[in-house]
Specification:
- The protein is an all-alpha fold.
- The protein contains 15 helices and no strands.
- The protein has a domain of 271 residues.
- The longest helix has 44 residues.
- About 5% of the residues have low confidence.
């Protein structure tokens, strides 16, 4: 018999609507917000359920934060909860990027947006660095010698995930699965283990050209983007750049960079940049098609295994598997933070803005992130458009 949920379907839906409207900082920050709000403050989701959702979200292709939102909606309200949580989380930022796409086409460029992004992008680094630190201490343990000795393997997996993500600048699903299996065999090998083993099967998608209908062609491309990209939303950027700019020539390089900037300065999942791209290519229908096609695989790959994943998650061997994957996932997210910082902070002023945002969050804990981003946006406009640094 299912335990009665301590919240209503309306409450979980409105929570994700609020998070999608105000949640800045990308996948690392959004994951931490969900853990802080739903596990610690509201206590709607248990720590174990959150860890299971994080592991499943990393294993399945698609944007990490959106998948985790869908899974957390599924925990007590199954398919209705997953569907409403996913829609509520994505729709605010989708509306924002479509409106920005309209402004982009109307004014023929975004010099003011680039100025804003200069300040906001730097401040975001400070926000996601602190979020990554909190997520690490909550999922693995405190940064202490005692914690290192107690969970030496988990910390080793964390470092492996961070280093490989930083060096390769992408996240490897085979690495995550391999470490999960290794830790399971090390800590709690399944009883009656034999030569037969289970494996994750991914559908193979073939590319077809359809010259008669741009929307159909877009749907196929963005569906593949959502189905083949693992990890944080940033992982989808190289795939989109190759297809949108180089292969299909839908956008110029500068337009694509502007689309990524728009995604970074709006709340919600970074992957919602596909809505901006779709709008520039084919107007509002293009935005809708791009967003639906990208998030559909994410939704399906989360809800289809979620029911069985939850049932077997209390198995000792599965718990060890989840712990191993979670540690390397958190390490990979930390590595992604370093990659973002390396790409975003191009000068000492940017480093200074990032450092200030980090210190403000540490010493003024009640100050909300949007206020810091607003101050950074004003500073970016002042530096780039007024004094023209």
């Amino acid at each position: 018999m299912e335990e009665k949920a301590p919240y209503s379907l309306w409450q979980i839906s409105t929570y994700f609507l609020h998070l999608g409207t105000t949640g800045f900082g990308g996948p690392v920050a959004l994951v931490e917000y969900m853990r802080r709000d739903l596990v610690e403050i509201k206590q709607w989701i248990s720590e174990e359920e959150f860890k299971q959702g994080l592991a499943l979200a990393q294993l399945a292709p698609g944007p990490l934060a959106a998948q985790l939102a869908i899974y957390l909606g599924f925990v007590h309200y199954r398919y209705w909860g997953a569907t409403l949580a996913g829609i509520a989380f994505v729709i605010p930022s989708f509306i924002m990027v479509v409106l920005l796409g309209m402004a982009y086409q109307a004014f023929g460029g975004l010099p003011w947006m680039q100025a804003i992004f200069y300040g906001v992008g730097a401040a975001v680094i400070g926000i996601i660095f602190l979020s990554s630190y909190k997520l690490t201490t909550k999922t693995i343990g405190s940064i202490s010698l005692a914690s290192f000795r107690k969970d030496v393997w988990l910390w080793l997996f964390f470092l492996v995930g961070a280093l490989i993500t930083y060096i390769t600048q992408k996240e490897g699903i085979l690495l995550f699965i391999g470490i999960g299996i290794f830790y399971m065999l090390l800590k709690a090998p399944p009883k009656g283990l034999n030569k037969q083993s289970n494996s994750f099967l991914l559908a193979t998608f073939f590319s077809f050209e359809y010259d008669s209908n741009i929307l159909w062609k877009m749907a196929l491309f963005f569906f593949k983007a959502g189905a083949f990209v693992f990890g944080s939303g940033l992982a989808i950027v190289p795939f989109l750049q190759s297809g949108v700019v180089q292969e299909n020539h839908w956008l110029t390089e500068q337009q694509f960079l502007d689309a990524v900037a728009v995604a970074m300065i709006t709340p919600g999942p970074i992957v919602v940049t596909v809505g901006f791209i779709g709008y520039l290519v084919a107007g509002f229908p293009g935005a809708v098609v791009a967003a639906l096609a990208t998030f559909l695989p994410c939704y399906l790959f989360t809800i289809l295994p979620a029911h069985h994943f939850k049932k077997i998650a209390n198995n000792v061997s599965i718990k060890a598997f989840v712990d191993g994957i979670t540690s390397v996932v958190v390490g990979a997210l930390f590595g992604a933070v370093l990659v973002i910082a390396q790409r975003t902070l191009s000068d000492l002023i940017g480093v200074g803005i990032a450092s200030c945002s980090l210190l403000v969050l540490i010493y003024f804990k009640k100050l909300k992130e949007p206020y810091i981003l607003l101050a950074a946006a004003v500073l970016g406009l002042f530096l780039k458009l007024i004094i023209q640094i």
